[in-house]
Amino acid sequence: MQNRGWLVFTLGVVGTLLALIGIFTVMEGQGLIQPRTIGLIFFFGTVALYAVVGLMVSARKVSDYYVAGRDIPAFYNGMAGAANWMSAASVIGMAGTIYLLGYDGLAYIMGWTGGYVLLALLIAPYVRKMRAYTVPDFMATRYEGNVARSVSVFAALAMNIVYLIPQFMGVGMIASRFLGLPFAWGVFVALAVILLTTFSGGMRGVTWVSVAQYLILLVAYLVPLVILSVRLTGNPIPWLAYGKALEQIDAYEVVHGMTRYVQPFTNMSRLNTLGLIFCLMVGTVGLPHVLTRFYTVKSVRDSRISVGWCLLFIILVYISAPAKAALVRNDIYQNLVGTPINQLPAWMDTWGKQGLVKVNDINGDGVLQFNELTLHADMIVVGAPEIAGMPYTVSSLIGAGGMAAAVSTSLGLLMVLAAGVAHDIYKKMINPNASEGVVLFWSRAVLVIVAVLCALAALTRPALIVQMVAWAFSIAAASFFPAVFLGIWWRRANAQGAVAGMITGLVVTIGYIILSHFYKIQFFGILTINAGLFGVPANFLVTYIVSMLTAEPSKEVQELVTELRFPRATRLIGEEG
Question: I want to staple 143 with a disulfide (CB 3.0 to 4.6 A). Which of 5, 75, 271, 495 is the partner?
């Protein structure tokens, strides 16, 4: 696709969305349209856009399906990468988590953005030098065989399933709120949207859709934030109003003797806060669907540029999350606390029916106090327009933005899973002579099966959205990061060491998540979201020891590692396509 086409597509999506916001706001204010109708239009309108784009941009060959033909411009690849990256945890859960944790919640932002800096400096250009379809392709070439490929496919499967489940939870919650559907029906609506988008278009279709989804989630995130900022501070620039909101919050809490929102290490210990930053940073570098995104650009140079654009597009949302959390908290302090319980706004009853808002009149005085109100982290962003008394159009918009984030990340994860099983297992190990049509068939079959299983798991709501995503990052950090990092920067790392390290890191991390979350067993007070603190060093240690005790890699592989370190060198490594 030419740059002109991408530009027309981008302007068309943004222009249409802004026009709809203006039209529906006016119509709603004059009583010409029902709020529920607005919600239906935003929800199904965006769904239709994703489905149509996914069906129109069909993958005609394997390279289209897995790596979008390697011809995506760096600017738009960065935008698509940001959309794939900013899951339901970022758009729906992160501001809510900061609302609840205060200063300590900033660990999520520092970890996730810092991870992209590591990616740009240490990994992306060097991985792109090896022309591959998947991360397991990289593993098989660097570590000389299909054993490393198989283990990396299994690790990707474990990580992606844990990451996919909260995406379905996010869309299920949005559908439940704005369509009036039960949560279970909302989850299966998410399933249908995801399958329609990825089934035929593959990575090329996912890229088109992801650009649209980023634009939608950005507009949806910023419009209510600006309105909220103006309403509470009179300042239309929320990133500047954030400071004033923090001052008001702190003054309120000091007067009422409350735990201070800006005080560090009050909700998480110093060890857990710093540990979370570490796990999220190295987990970012190890995420297969993030690494795969840099296979879709034209060159090594474009991969580095793509990372830069991606980080910029992520920052636009990430610097907004703390502002949104503080403004919502300040609004609750100023306008909700002190309200008679029999006069509470309708949104509290609406969200209460979903179990996401609870009120308990502890002192029995019939007046709401802050400690008598419990807001679930996953409803803060989606519910913010209602909390601030904005038009229902804005609520529907942010619902569409949250759905865009969850669906976009799901697309990237499912593509990695489909490629891992069909390309890395079936094509590379079981049937090397399989035609492109057969490989694509198995990719789509795996995609459907995994999506259905994850949707079923999401019905149980096993944990908070942001918590489950943190688990996925720990799994990625403990399995992929050491193998990829050492594969580029240590020639002595061999197949036996990498395989043993990946298995050890995976077992240790998943084992700690199970012990900590389900059996409440913790070591050194480390939370389940920081399970990677055990898995990452275990992986590095085992990889080093086993590599040193076994034969060094072949001369060809050591030369390959040297070549990888010079992204501009002329020799290309890996598959054509």
Answer: 495
pLDDT digits over 447-499, tens only?
Answer: 888 888 888 998 888 887 888 989 999 999 999 899 989 998 999 999 999 99
Radius of gyration of the chain (CA): 24
Q: What predicted TM-score, i.e. pTM, was given to this entire model?
A: 0.83
The answer to whether residues 292 and 67 touch, using CB atoms and an 8 Å cutoff, is yes
Sequence-separated (6 or more) residues with CB below 8 Å from residue 27? 33
Residue 395: inside a domain:
yes
Contact residues for 331 (Cβ-Cβ < 8 A; gap 6+): 228, 231, 232, 387, 388
Domain interval for residue 300: 36-461
Q: Which tokens go with 457?
A: 């798991």
CA distance 529 to 289: 20
Residue 148 included in any domain: yes
Instruction: Say if 550 falls within a structural domain.
Output: no
CATH code for the domain in which residue 444 is found: 1.20.1730.10
Least confident of 173-182, 249-258, 487-496, 543-552: 173-182
Count up the domains in the chain and report the number.
1
Q: Is residue 334 part of a domain?
A: yes
H-assigned helices in 89-182:
94-101, 106-118, 124-129, 135-142, 146-179
Q: Which residues of 86-95 are buried (b: 16+ CB within 10 A; e: fewer)?
A: bbbbbbbbbb
State the residue for tokens 């999220």: 280
